[in-house]
Amino acid sequence: MEQTWKITGTYADWQLTVAILPPAGEFAGAPLPEPELAPLAEHFRTVVEMVEAHRELDRLAAKPGQLRPGNGSSAASARISG
Segment Disordered: which positions (predicted)? Predict the structure, then answer.
């Protein structure tokens, strides 16, 4: 089973892919339980929002003439697709 989440942010496009693979050995071929990945997707969204907000704060705190890359006026409101 594989699940991918994508978020378009101000400074980057983010993607997280999780692959759940069957084990080798004694349990090979056993059915895999369906995982609950919604909490993982929510943590991913939170991390992206925090990193994007930190980048924006760094940009705003930079001295004139020392602006850092990125021209976003605010942190991205992350939307998860996947």
Answer: 62-82
Q: Which domain holds residue 46?
A: 1-17+38-53
**For the segment 14-70, what is each residue's pLDDT rounded down to a tens digit?**
999 999 888 888 777 778 788 999 999 999 999 999 999 999 999 889 877 665 555
Please state the domain count of the chain. 1
Residue position matching structure tokens 């994508």: 6
* Residues 79/6, Cβ–Cβ less than 8 Å: no
Q: Which long-range contacts (CB under 8 A, 24 or more apart) does 16-22 make?
A: 16/41, 16/44
| Predicted local distance difference test score (pLDDT) of residue 81 | 66
Angle (CA) 67-70-71 rounded to 5° is 90
